[in-house]
Each structure stands twice: as structure tokens, then as C-alpha cells.
Write a structure and sequence with these properties.
Low-confidence stretches: none
GO molecular function, one term: methyltransferase activity
GO biological process, one term: methylation
Distance between the termini: 38 Å
Pfam families: Methyltransf_7
Keywords: Magnesium, Metal-binding, Methyltransferase, Transferase
Strand content: 15-25%
Strand order of the largest sheet: 3-2-1-4-5-7-6
Shape: globular
Mean pLDDT: 85
Number of strands: 7
Protein name: Salicylate carboxymethyltransferase
Number of helices: 11
Length: about 350
């Protein structure tokens, strides 16, 4: 599976699109925004650049990226006004993989400019936007060119499906039935990828610059705990049912694994310390309910999973099974959420680029 081509959120603005099914992600951004606001305030007060360069990594195609940027720019402007300084120019880089629907995102920039003027008044400095297609597991920007990097719900995606998962049969992610070799393979891939991510960002961010990253994670040190694996397990149930009915080949299921890792706070902090380019300023853990953002919670929780994962499922299993697998998944989610209240665990870390 070539993730650079395959991994992208559901494009467009239709009923199944990520743009219309990313309320969960917006809730997560809102709950973590105090960390980002504090980081960019401290950054501006210490560096005070004439042109503030912000990168949003894993921007996707929905409204959330510009929701984040509006909060960051408004906060920076307020800090500037308190210091009695001239408002800086703002340069914003929106990054995602080449398969991302950048056009849908770019169409919302005019609305962003209107919202910024309404919030801050006329006379705000120019805000320039640029799209940057490419993997954040490689270099994206020139040396020492960025002041602030933000990423939400992106860095838990790995650069590839970990090698060595041949025995993780009938699972699509880590689970209690996964062999120990599979758990080690997932963790090793996370260690490699996150270290590379930090190394490249360290080259791109100025000394004293800030980075805030929010990802799915877990409180437990057990990588198979329900708090981080449950959502994928319900999709695996739908797939196993279809295998038992002969609708999907068993070999297809056995060879499919989700390229994601949800670390514990200890694992995340350890990698930051090992890489050595950043100092951790804050590391917080918080939960959000699966149905945190709409009245029709269970169905919307299922639609969110589809918007995030459909491209990978279609690439591996073929587009012909998509409607049926997600119909079954929706029924499973509705049933489970009528009996329990599952939550996503999230980690947000704020870092400073050390000298």
C-alpha cells in the first residue's frame, strides 16, 4: 500500500465527505486550543517577527485547518497589540499528502479573511496562504524558515504499514489477539517515524520557535487497550462478518492493516527527549466522546470513520464493498453506543525548538 497516494480524507463536500464529517476533529481542536494559544503568544512575545510564518501539517480538506489558523492569527495579533507593536504580516503554509483535496480547502480562504477582519477589525496585516503537498515524514520547508508549526489528528498516521505483520491475521490494527511481534512492529514504526518527523521539523523551525501536536493516544501503557483500539475493532467485526459470508476473501482481510499508532504520554515524551531538538513545555491528556458533536451521535461517529478511512479500504478491498462494509459498521456502532459511551483519548504536546 503506497500511503502517499492512498491516504487522504474523503474529498469534496458531499454527505460522506470529510468536510461534512469532521466535527469530532473540531471538538478536539477546541479542547486543545488553549495550549496552542499559549504557545503562539509566548513565541510572538519572545521573537516578534515582522512576518510570522505558520505551518499547518495534515490540513486535510475540511474547515478545521482554517479554524485553527484563525485562532492562531487572532491570538498573535492580540499579543502584538498588547505590546504596542505594528501588526505582522502572516504567511500560512497548508500541508497534506498530494492526494488531499486542496481545492475544497482553498475555496474557504476568502471566508477566512472575512472572519479575520470581523474578529480583529480593519487594518489587520496581510495573510498569505500557500499549499504544500508532501509527506511530513520528509523535508517540506527551507532551513530555519518557520516560527510556528501546528498539527492536529495527523501525526498518529504512520509513514507506512509496519513490516512484520504477517501473523496479525483477522485483525486490521493492534488488538488483544494480535501476536507480540505485531505490537513490537507497530511501536518500532512509530519510534522511527516520530523521530524522523521531529528531526525534519527541527531543521525547518527557527531557534525558539514552537510546535504544537495533537494526536489520538492512550493513557494506558498497553497498546491493545480498548481506549485506543476499539474504533478499528468495530470495523474489523464488519469485515470478518463479510469474510464469513464469502463477500470478502479471507486473504484480503489477513493482509490489511491500518497504518496508525496511538502512543501513551510516556512513549511520546521519550521520543521527544531521545531526538533532542525540542523541549516539552506542556503535555496534556484529554478525552472526547465519540458522539461529542452532533445530536445523531452514533450515525455521525460511523460517518466520521468512513470519511477518514474509505480511501484505504477502497484501495485494498475494491470500491465494490465500500457501501456494504460501512453499512454494517454503522449498525455495529449504533448497537454498541446504545449500551456504552466510548471515548477517544487524545494527547496534546507543546514544544520549543531548543538552541
Amino acid at each position: 500500500m503506497e500511503l502517499v497516494q492512498v491516504l487522504h480524507m474523503k474529498e469534496g463536500v458531499g454527505d460522506a465527505s470529510y468536510a461534512n464529517n469532521s466535527g469530532l476533529q473540531k471538538t478536539v481542536i477546541s479542547k486543545a486550543k488553549h495550549v496552542a494559544e499559549e504557545a503562539i503568544t509566548n513565541l510572538y512575545c519572545s521573537i516578534m517577527p515582522q512576518c510570522l510564518r505558520i505551518a499547518e501539517l495534515g490540513c486535510s480538506s475540511g474547515p478545521n485547518a482554517l479554524f485553527v489558523i484563525l485562532e492562531l492569527v487572532s491570538t498573535a495579533y492580540k499579543a502584538c497589540q498588547k505590546l504596542g507593536r505594528q501588526l505582522p504580516e502572516i504567511q500560512v503554509f497548508l500541508n497534506d499528502l498530494p492526494g488531499n483535496d486542496f481545492n475544497t480547502l482553498f475555496k474557504t480562504i476568502a471566508k477566512f479573511q472575512q472572519n479575520l477582519s470581523q474578529e480583529m477589525g480593519n487594518g489587520v496585516g496581510p495573510c498569505y496562504f500557500m499549499g504544500v503537498p508532501g509527506s511530513f515524514y520528509g523535508r517540506l520547508f527551507p532551513n530555519r524558515s518557520l516560527h510556528f508549526v501546528h498539527s492536529s489528528y495527523s501525526v498518529h498516521w504512520l509513514s507506512q504499514v509496519p513490516p512484520g505483520l504477517e501473523d496479525n491475521k483477522a485483525n486490521i490494527f493492534m488488538s488483544s489477539s494480535s501476536p507480540r511481534s505485531a505490537l513490537k512492529a507497530y511501536y518500532a514504526q512509530f519510534q522511527k517515524d516520530f523521530s524522523v518527523f521531529l528531526k525534519h521539523r527541527a531543521e525547518e523551525i527557527v531557534e525558539g520557535g514552537r510546535m504544537v501536536v495533537t494526536i489520538m493516544g492512550r493513557r494506558s501503557e498497553d497498546p491493545t487497550s480498548k481506549e485506543c483500539c476499539y474504533s478499528w475493532e468495530l470495523l474489523a467485526l464488519a469485515l470478518r462478518d463479510m469474510v464469513s459470508e464469502g463477500l470478502i476473501e479471507e486473504e484480503k482481510l489477513d493482509s490489511f492493516n491500518i497504518p496508525q499508532y496511538t502512543p501513551s504520554p510516556t512513549e511520546m515524551k521519550l521520543e521527544i527527549e531521545k531526538e533532542g531538538s525540542f523541549v516539552v513545555d506542556q503535555l496534556e491528556v484529554f478525552e472526547v466522546d465519540w458522539d461529542c458533536y452532533e445530536s445523531d451521535g452514533p450515525c455521525n461517529a460511523a460517518k466520521c470513520m468512513r470519511a477518514v478511512s474509505e480511501s484505504m479500504f477502497a484501495s485494498h478491498f475494491g470500491s465494490g464493498i465500500i457501501e456494504e462494509v460501512f453499512r454494517r459498521h454503522r449498525e455495529i456502532v449504533v448497537d454498541r453506543m446504545s449500551k456504552e459511551k466510548p471515548q477517544y483519548v487524545n494527547l496534546v504536546v507543546s514544544m520549543t525548538r531548543s538552541g
